[in-house]
Amino acid sequence: MMSDKHSIVYWTYQDAPEHAYPGHPESPNRFGYFKDWIAQSPYPAMQRLDYAPARLEDLMAAHSQRMIENLQQETQNPPHEIDQAPTYVTPASYQAALGAVGATLAVSRKVMRASAGRGFAIVRPPGHHAVHDHPMGFCLFNNLAVAAADAVISGMGKVAVFDFDAHHGNGVEDIFRQTEQVAYCSIHEEGLYPGTGHLEAAPHARGRLVNLPVPAFSGTKVFTRLIDQVVEPWLKAFQPKMLFVCAGFDAHFSDPLTSLTVNTEGFYRLTQKVMDLAETYCGGRAVFVLEGGYDPLALSDNLQASLAALSGEADYPDHYGKGPDQSKDISALIEEARTYHQLRE
Ligand SMILES: [Zn+2]
């Protein structure tokens, strides 16, 4: 089915144990279950990459120099909150943030150089809320945006970003708001933090910046239907050379921060579908970057399910099972989005 070359999954891992804050959900404990599995028994197709901390010139592909310097200064103080989310920093946070970007770049540059390839940067702190000029929403640097901008600067051509985290990736949208070479599409729960991501939020970039807010209790069927009827025609029309994925797993029904109802099998199928799209429309190049996911056991299951799909494996753990109803009628949203963005099969 898949060639050997295609089934290699390049990966990096950073759990940043010292980037921690009392009582905060974005904590090293998120990897409490996953870290033992990834240390001992990743799938045979998975190939670990070394990485170095990101350099200033790397970061400036997506962030202003003032933002970078401000963050470095903030982290010289004792642990404290820097916004209402709350986003926190500690004296270890600047190195953690540089590491998360570096680990993401290692995967994306490897995939970029390969004639086709897939990878997963399993990192924290996450990135998709961090905007051009400041950190935001548990995110310090925008790991994925730096890597996507790096791909464009390196001459990759157009790249696309698909975001299935439960929250809108406002940072990715902000950074690429005026960048014609980068398209962004997000499925997210309406009304959640940070309150952005309305369907008509980017009238200047119809067909390029696509927001799909879904109601609470939308599950796997809603996500797969949107992928078939909106995400696929969006990719087909944009013709990117590479696909980046904001892979947040907080849309799982057990997640304490959200009310969506995707299950672990859903993340397996979703990953398969996204990979199929990457094969068909993006030269077979796909880079997944971890974003949210705040139930440590579910995050471990969901990461293993997603990595199984990328590795061509059929088995993965699922401690939670099928869960609540997966359906919700989103026909109106699909019709509205397809009309607004002029998307047709
Ligand atoms: Zn999230």
Q: In brief, what are we looking at here?
A:
The protein has 345 residues and is α/β, with parallel strands linked by helices. 37% of the residues lie in helices and 15% in strands. α5 packs across α6, α8 packs parallel to α9 (264-281) and α9 packs parallel to α10 (296-311).
Kindly provide the radius of gyration, computed on alpha-carbon positions and rounded to a whole number of angstroms.
18 Å
Total of helices: 11
The shape is globular
Distance between the termini: 26 Å
CATH class reads Alpha Beta
Major sheet: arrangement of strands: 2-1-5-10-9-6-7-8
Main sheet record: 8 strands, parallel
Spans of at least 5 consecutive residues with low confidence: 1-5
**CATH A-level architecture:** 3-Layer(aba) Sandwich
The overall average pLDDT, rounded, is 96
Say which CATH homologous superfamily is assigned. Answer: Histone deacetylase domain
Relative helix content: 25-40%
Q: Strand tally, please?
A: 10
Domain count: 1
Q: What share of residues are in beta strands?
A: 5-15%
Structural class: alpha/beta
